[in-house]
Amino acid sequence: MDIATLLGLSTGLTLVLGAIFMGGSLLQFFDVPSLMIVVGGTLASICVTYPFEEVFQAFSAGMKIFASRKVKDGEVVNMMVRIAEISRREGLLALENIQTENAILKKACQLIADNADAGLIRETLRIEIGSMKRRHAVGESVFKSLAGFSPSYGMIGTLIGLIQMLARLDDPKSIGPAMAVAIITTFYGALLSTLFFLPVAGKLRSRTLNETLQLEIIFEGAKCILENNNPRLVYEKLSSFIAPRERRYERRG
Prior knowledge:
Layout: H1 3-23, H2 32-49, H3 52-67, H4 73-90, H5 103-113, H6 118-166, H7 175-227, H8 231-238
Helix pairs in contact: 2-6, 2-7, 3-6, 4-7, 4-8, 5-6, 5-7, 6-7, 7-8
């Protein structure tokens, strides 16, 4: 579970709700028509902008940032070193039996076991990197669009409320409450954009850069194992991808 994402979202909500409770009642900030305009309108526009499959894919990717823990680059380096140790001790064919949830790493192990040349490994992982970037770009683009649509619908809701308020100027007592309701839609749009949609788009961008780097580590590790499966040399080369303070080579039997 990604603690940073949950902590950031919960902290933001807590601060906003705390400010609301300190100044009045939460019910003052709840308005069904405003929610209909902002949430419904935003979802409608995103479905017009993107195919439904891409919208579903984006929301699925957005949910995963809360559930999955970020894999550290150092962990990937250590995995490649362990693979080098196995290949040196048991031979390249032993890598066919490597069990891992990482499909790319599994494919790299299979290519090493097949004694594929470095060019084939590079081309295979290049295709994987390109495919991963395209998938992540869709999710990032969808959430950036959501971040743009929600404040716009907030303004639309505010204009609707102002028009309705101006139509009732003959009743001065209704002006204050009507103005409050009109502004709530802008609040909803800004809150969704700032606290959720833009941060999720940024997180997806960060995950893309992180996974791209890790695929590069896997490629370099696979190439190094084929050229020279000395675990120490594999580690020395791959450790260049990680920060100096995270570098620690531990030889396993």
